[in-house]
Amino acid sequence: MVKPEPNDLDPLWEDQDWAIGQMLFMGWDGTEVTPQIRSLIEDHHLGSILLTAKNLKSAHETAKLVQELQTIAHQAGHPHPLLIALDQENGGVNSLFDEDYICQFPSAMGMAAASSHEMAYEVAKATATEVSAVGVNLILGPVLDVLNNARYQPLGVRAYGDDPHEASLYANLAIDGFKDAGVATCGKHFPSYGNLDFLGSNLDVPIITQTLEELSLSALVPFRQAIRTGKLDSMFVGGCGVVNPSMNINHACLSDQVVDELLRSELGFEGVAISECLEMEALSHEIGVKGGTVMAVEAGCDLVLLCRAFDVQKEAISGLKLGVENGIISKDRIYTSLRRVLKMKAGCTSWATALNPPGLSLLSKIHPSHLALSEKAYSSSITIVRDRDKLIPLSQSMDHGEDLLLLTPLVKPLPASAATKVILEGKNNRDIQTIHDKWNHRERGAIMSGEGVFKELGKSLARRRVGTLLHSSYTASGVRPIHENLINRASAIIIVTADANRNLYQAGFTKHIGTICSLHRSMGQKKNFIVVAVSSPYDFAMDKSIGTYVCTFDFTETAMHALTNALFGEFNPQSTLPGTLRKAKRVAKSRQIWLVEPYDQKNDADGLDELLKSVCRAAGPKGSFLSQATAASFETNSPTIEEAHFIVRNSSTGALYGFCATYFYPGPGTGAIGALIVDPAKRNLSIGRSLHLRAMRNMIKNHPGTLKKMQLGASYPAVFLGMPVAEDESGSVRGWYASQGWDVQFPKRLTNLHLENLAEWSAPEGLLQSIQRASISFDLIHGLENGESALRHVEEQANVGVVELYRAALSDTKQCGVVRAKSAEETLLGTVIVCRPGSRLSSRVPPLAGDHVGGIVAPVVPTSAQSILVLQGLALMGLRQSKQNKSANVALSWVPDDLYEPLIAMGFEVAQAFEEITNSADNWGHL
């Protein structure tokens, strides 16, 4: 626990009432500032506010409301602006809706189905930019839950899917988008809402029954990966129970086992922990809000959420104060939370922005581009899972004049929708429930009474038809005579379901209608049958009896508009169901053959740059070894190296789906694969296999008899030194290369390191004295004419790629040199390359790219009793030279085997690690 330093906080915080106010996260009912919320800000120093759909009428009114809240806080003497938080997950969970200024975007699962990492990032950034314009500085998102039991979980499309690694990928893209728009992030719902058992009563908390080991392998993966990015500002800790052999917890957010031990100690989270709303019935009846608030803080929560009841909120405040008086909550504990909250505020708000949100002036400017992005995203998310009888597009499967029947369930409108807006104009605001209401009060049924949600869908379909559009609703009453009469009239029937797995009457109704249509067809009548799931895709994903099955992932107006366009062939949906369903579909395509073409630098360089950006964005921190690479990085322009690169492209759009770089070194007869890159959205489709096969065949064909061995990884250019270790925690990459013929049992580790703040670095104590006692001396040489001994040394000790690396460095006499270590007898003990920032070598060694980055490259030190001392001496000379060259940071690239460990002792940190593999060319003789 961080202890308070005497002078690191404003004296104001010595007043514990002020400090406690920063630990409170509260909301209220109503679209205007009430005396209650004003009192919380002025009298109780409330530091964070949750806005829900109940508070928000329009973008303009929201900006005014937020500005008024911040003004009250400023005038009340708050040193920092309020955190203003919002649920804006997209799809069905958007607290702020304004069809003139705020765009609708697909749900999390819809974005995963779209399979575009660039679009996922852009949608997140656009969402955050819009809410930021009205003064919101914290989005309660992204959802990090994995749907381990996807069919029966109410979380549904709010999660990215049932694959933990895919969920991690899209969640991290969302985090990047939010952060780049200047909004703070909040992962949820820790430790997981993805596989809950519901016990029935509102007073029964849903529970997690998985063991910690099971959670760690699946549910906790996205949480762990998001924390590793260092960009997750806060974590929403759930109100579920955890029941397994190692835990028996009723409320996760009240347990130090969950917050302090699992979240902080094991996963290393250092941000703000936010409790689930403590107004939930189960907690208030079992413990009471006073005790619950104290327990939440004692467990490690920094912000305690109390959604809207003023009397309950005051009870929580008095509970916190009583906890301090009783000695349960210490001063250290309060100031630990205070520091975390203030740090988050400093990163996402200031008085200058809080008091003057740009509002409509910015929203009106960005709305056209965001609207285009919204339409593109929804079109990309619509998924035709099956269309066995080719019923889509309807314009081809139906004749003019034939009637189309639309059957829709009665569902509750989404909070952010035009349908809700119509209802709000005629009803009390309290009739519309937020996501917090649904969760806290256990009203888990997603399908409730309500009319008009699908009216616009019916109108949209009618506008496209020459024949009549028939539209009727259905309920738990089942198939009625009116339905049968309409089916008799129609040639095609579209039935809409929304979470049929949890609303079983829909599943039964759909199957019944399907049976009726089959009977009509058996008598020679045309009854095309289409099922559209507008929420969970799992309704009929595995039911092959439904021949035409379409998924939209939410039923916002924009989603329904995109559905209509898809049904009538305005575009051809290319998306696939996310997670394991997508993988299952790809298995069937695993032997797909792709056309592989030679890479042309002039025509393909831009496409390769875009492919590299896509890979880096998808990989997050793991992709950092490619972050500085460009198309030019793979071109050696060396007369002693033969290059041949290959691509898989979309011939219509020109986009590159994959790239493979190969090099042949004639002297030793070594071939190398220096890169094998596949668009993340196109993986598991045999693109990599096709590229690898073509590359190996080309190598064998062009070098018969001279090709002796093949190497996975190239030292020059040093982009892809081998298999990236960090990306292969599960062993899947290693397994893939093994399946392509590589013997991966005996790899050679190669490590890239870095050292930041060179100006503050100093040599380890005693290192210089040890070097002097060993009589080791150093010199710096430039130019090939002076490098004969160094090159001969490298040829004897390292592979041919490293030799080429040294040759290139010695050729750049102004920017690069080679440091030699010698014994007292002038015997060469080791060498290393030293580069100035911006050297020619930096274009071939990506870690060297960037402003003010000095390079220490490829230390070659033979094994001896002095080898570690020689290595550290070479690094020391490189660092001294880098200081003279005014380098701010230093990259140390290509360190073999375990030699990186003594360098860590000098202050270097590991940046990336690779495994270089060398095999006999005979492994691929059959090609």
What tags apply to this protein structure?
single chain; 927 residues; alpha/beta; TIM Barrel; Rossmann fold; Aminopeptidase; 4 domains; 13-stranded mixed beta sheet; six-stranded mixed beta sheet; 31 helices; 18% strand; globular; disordered N terminus
Please write out the topology.
Blueprint: H1 16-21, E1 24-26, H2 35-42, E2 48-51, H3 59-75, E3 83-86, E4 88-90, E5 93-94, H4 108-114, H5 117-133, E6 138-139, H6 164-180, E7 186-190, E8 207-208, H7 212-217, H8 221-229, E9 234-237, E10 241-244, E11 247-249, H9 257-266, E12 272-275, H10 281-286, H11 289-299, E13 304-306, H12 310-325, H13 331-348, H14 351-354, H15 360-381, E14 383-387, H16 394-397, E15 404-409, H17 418-426, H18 435-440, H19 455-464, E16 469-474, H20 481-489, E17 492-497, H21 504-522, E18 528-533, E19 548-551, H22 557-567, H23 580-587, E20 597-598, H24 601-619, E21 642-649, E22 656-665, E23 670-678, H25 687-702, E24 709-712, E25 723-724, H26 732-739, E26 748-755, H27 767-773, E27 777-781, H28 788-797, H29 800-811, E28 816-822, E29 828-835, E30 853-860, H30 867-884, E31 889-896, H31 900-904, E32 909-920
Parallel strand pairs: 1-2, 1-13, 2-3, 3-6, 7-9, 8-10, 9-12, 15-16, 15-17, 17-18, 18-19, 23-24, 30-31
Antiparallel strand pairs: 4-5, 10-11, 14-19, 20-21, 21-22, 22-23, 24-32, 25-32, 26-31, 26-32, 27-28, 28-29, 29-30
Helix pairs in contact: 4-15, 5-6, 5-15, 6-8, 11-12, 15-22, 19-22, 27-30, 28-29
